[in-house]
Amino acid sequence: MPTIKLPDCELFYQLDDFTDPWTKPETVLMLHGNAESSLSWYAWVPVLARHYRVLRPDMRGYGQSTPMPRAYEWTFDKLIDDYCRLLDSLNIERFHLVAAKIGGTVARVFAARRPDRVQSLTVIGTPQAKRPGAEQIPALMDEYETKGAEHWARRTMDGRLGEHFPAEGVEWWTRFMGRAAVPSLIGFNRGINYADISADLPNIRCPTLVITTQESGLGAVERTRDWQKQIPHSKLLVLPGKSYHVAASDAEACARATLQHMQSAPIKYKKHN
Predict the structure, then answer these.
(1) Domain range spanning residue 128?
(2) 95-151 pLDDT, tens per residue?
(3) Nearest C-alpha neighbor of 11 from the set 46, 49, 63, 70
(4) Long-range contacts at 261-266 (CB < 8 A, ≥ 24 apart)
């Protein structure tokens, strides 16, 4: 099982590479959303891994990485440091960054604070920079504690995947997210989920693609456009539908748009060996 030992946890990751063996492919780092793991990118790997090395870590606290205690103080800089340590261990200096949902919030901060490492950024179905709803944190924490992660996932699943996603798929995602460790959910919800990252957006310098849907539950297209336009060198792609987890509901369309975006990004660094 591929893991990296960090000072206070182990980080699990998957690395997929189906590029031609005589080439030196660039790397894509993919960050999943809350209550998920690297498995959430299953539909993207066939599209991307023929062209890039695809690195999919389980964020600390989730998947096969070490669960975090309730009292753990989550910060963006700690998460970014985790991923940089992983990249350094694999000899990867610069990379393309792709992220979904709240992973896109982490990714935007990552690109802003480590511009020397991020060659391009794609965020899919990600919240506003200043996400409303922080007042519901105590109720969410109580729900996690008393009813469990699957109850929360089932209650909130309707808006995630849109009206055309198959019922069997909705059930799979519900059970998948329902396996998340409750202590990790509580700490992450308190420290990251509703953080205001507005100040970081103008500091993102790499080419950026933002993907949303016409009727996303995370906000109207114009509201998404408002924060997207604060990112220099960014563009917005709006897909039809109501899903806000568009990276799952429209995985292939998103993956192909992302592939085109990454391939058009200028190469300004020496590739790894």
Answers:
(1) 3-264
(2) 999 999 999 999 999 999 999 999 999 999 999 999 888 888 899 999 999 999 999
(3) 63
(4) 261/120, 261/122, 261/207, 261/209, 262/26, 262/28, 262/52, 262/96, 262/119, 262/120, 262/122, 263/51, 264/207, 265/96, 265/119, 265/120, 265/206, 265/207, 266/207
- Asked if the structure places residue 44 within a domain, the reply is yes
Q: Structure tokens of 224? A: 């998404």
Closest C-alpha among 39, 30, 75, 49 to residue 192: 75
Taking the C-alpha atoms of residue 261 and residue 245, their distance in angstroms, rounded to an integer, is 20
The CATH number for 163's domain is 3.40.50.1820
Rounded CA separation 228/233 (Å): 10
Q: Using only the alpha carbons of the chain, give its radius of gyration.
A: 17
Q: Is residue 144 part of a domain?
A: yes
Q: What is the C-alpha to C-alpha distance for residues 174 and 184, in angstroms, rounded to an integer?
A: 17
- Could you give the number of structural domains in the chain? 1
Name the pTM for this structure: 0.95
* 196 is a domain residue: yes
Read off the pLDDT of residues 232-252 as tens digits, 9 standing for 90 and up. Answer: 999 999 999 999 999 999 999
Whether 114 maps to a domain, the answer reads yes
